Amino acid sequence: MHVRAGLTIAALALALAPAALAAPSSAIVSVKDLGTGSGEVWAVLPERPPQCIVVYVHSAGDLSPARYLGWLDYLAISKKCAVVFPRYQAAATGPAPAADLPALRKGLSVGLKYVETVAYGLGENHAAPNLPVIAAGVGYGGTLAFYYAAYAKAWGLPVPVSVDSMFPVAGARAGVPKTPLAPSTDVLIQVGDRDRAGGKPAGQTLWKYLASHAAAKKRYVVVHSTGSLAAVSGAPVKSTSGAENTFWPPLDRFIDSASAAAGY
Asked: Under CATH, which architecture does the 8-261 domain have?
């Protein structure tokens, strides 16, 4: 069971004033809202310089982090990571990669640069250079996480060391990247046995994209429904023990491995 602190003030700030510049939570974290429209991005920062960065890509239609506060809280406070949360959509529409990818790139460029340059805490210390980056995504964001990982170098952004794709939505509209992932990237795809938005067909589309990726660097997991978890499309963002105990530990392992490799 995971224990988390509360982002009460941050949650209120996001709900009542989404354009607020900063929303500290008991001097533990701050939430910085940068940019506008589809290029908007939120940087969720721990009090001290982070040990890693998680790029968290939301599902289609979520135009703010409001539904993901449990994740952001946990990653910033418990895992000591900075989180970059790009909006990437101008409106609550379905997958539209032709518009979404340029917006994703813009938001990530702004958010990642901010994490690197901002001063942390009373000591006003900066993050160490070349922090490990983990890409995590839910739903359509689980597919866009692959796009970011595949195109990061071409976009002038840090290449993520791992990709955690939770209940991805792929297929004709979402597609897959035209460039393979870096051989060193660790990948996890989780699909739900009752997910009708993506499910096994979407997972298999991405798994086929990974055909040339080393077997030791990729995993495909079917999440089966239980009494504490209905493995439907919205399951990864539920604030329940069943969801947290299913979806948080795999990302924990990616973060812990990356942080250890970086000397934290």
From this structure: 3-Layer(aba) Sandwich (3.40)
106 vs 112: CA distance, rounded Å: 10
Task: Count CB neighbours of 99 within 10 A.
Answer: 14
| Token digits of residue 20 | 């607020």
**DSSP assignment string, 59-98:** PTT--SGGGGHHHHHIIIIIS-EEEEEE---SSS-S--HH
Coil, strand or helix: which one is 205? Answer: helix
Domain ranges of the chain: 8-261
Please give the single-letter amino acid code of residue 142.
Answer: G
Give every CB contact of residue 126 below 8 A, 6+ residues apart in sequence.
49, 116, 117, 118, 119, 120
State the average pLDDT over residues 139-143: 96
Report the distance separating Cα 154 and Cα 139, nearest Å: 24
Fill in the DSSP letter of residue 28: T
pLDDT single digits (tens) 56-90: 999 999 999 999 999 999 999 999 999 999 999 99
CB environment 153-167: b (16+ within 10 A), e (fewer): eebebbbbbbbbbbb
For residue 204, the Cα-to-chain-centroid distance in whole angstroms is 21
